[in-house]
Amino acid sequence: MSEKIYEYKDDQDWYITNWSETESFSNFSQVSAEAGKILEDLQVALNKDGRTFPIEVAILRYHSAYRLLVFLVNLINEEAKRKLELIQRQGALLVVESGQLLYVYIPQGGVSLTDFLGAKEVKDTLLIATRNEGKTKEFRKLFGKLGYKVENLNDYPDLPEVAETGMTFEENARLKAETISQLTGKMVLADDSGLQVDILGGLPGVWSARFAGVGATDAENNIKLLHELAMVFELKDRAAHFHTTLVVASPEKESLVVEADWPGYINFEPKGENGFGYDPLFLVGETGKTSAELTVEEKNEQSHRAQAVKKLMEVFPAWQSKQSL
């Protein structure tokens, strides 16, 4: 069994390594916890195909993380035929190979994030395809926890309006999300929502906002809906549900789609002062209350949009971590 001994020694640092054919990476350090942590983390970061480096490291003196990493990178490049590079950046040390960042050493006390990244804004941006500040506020609260800066279309006044020409909620949400994503190069979240009444074959559906005509008010749409149901006298026959489809799009990536429904019935007259759209007519499940009679907190706990957002937050991290197409 062939073995090679490597040594580095100066007034402050002294390392001895044994490179053999056995698969081990041990005897990290009895001198410095930091040095031992560097060795452990580097082994994990550089692991290829489940194989460990056949190396034993004895650290007799330790002072410089930079010196230790230079020693290890050169050794591994020579013996394992790797092409590792060590880069210094604002006090941090980066191990890179073929353009891929594999390992980062951060000194005690940290480094300036702005200096390290070379930009004032360090968070990724999620653009909400809406000009509604209330809706944006809701998404900002959710995605802020995941480390995102949330913007909306008011931040991009020169963007064109995207015509909602789709025949389904998903088609319209995709149109908005994917079109704006391609125009801006950003990750974009769009939604399309509406009311679907069973006895009306799913109407008003994607035409919910313009059921009584283009530019119709909420009151006009409600009057139109009551007119369409004027001859439906049994509440059980007035079953309906609110629907939401959310689409997240990013350039060169398959879009993420989630959907949710909120079942109920259409009341015979409007009730309640809260909410908007068809809320005064929509009886929530079997509660006997319309959506407009719920508090904002009650609605946000159970609505179609609340359910869709909950689903989105469950699958978004895994989707976001996937590689581009």
UniProtKB/TrEMBL annotation:
Catalytic residues, chain numbering: D192 (proton acceptor)
Pfam families: Ham1p_like
Keyword Metal-binding applies: yes
UniProt keyword Magnesium, yes or no: yes
Gene Ontology cellular component list: cytosol
InterPro entries: dITP/XTP_pyrophosphatase (IPR020922), ITPase-like_fam (IPR029001), RdgB/HAM1 (IPR002637)
Signal peptide: none
Keywords of the record: Hydrolase, Magnesium, Metal-binding, Nucleotide metabolism, Nucleotide-binding
GO molecular function: dITP diphosphatase activity; ITP diphosphatase activity; metal ion binding; nucleotide binding; ribonucleoside triphosphate phosphatase activity; XTP diphosphatase activity
HAMAP family assigned to the protein according to its UniProt record, in alphabetical order: Non_canon_purine_NTPase
Family, per entry: Belongs to the HAM1 NTPase family.
General function of this protein: Pyrophosphatase that catalyzes the hydrolysis of nucleoside triphosphates to their monophosphate derivatives, with a high preference for the non-canonical purine nucleotides XTP (xanthosine triphosphate), dITP (deoxyinosine triphosphate) and ITP. Seems to function as a house-cleaning enzyme that removes non-canonical purine nucleotides from the nucleotide pool, thus preventing their incorporation into DNA/RNA and avoiding chromosomal lesions.
Protein name: dITP/XTP pyrophosphatase
Biological source species: Streptococcus gordonii (strain Challis / ATCC 35105 / BCRC 15272 / CH1 / DL1 / V288)
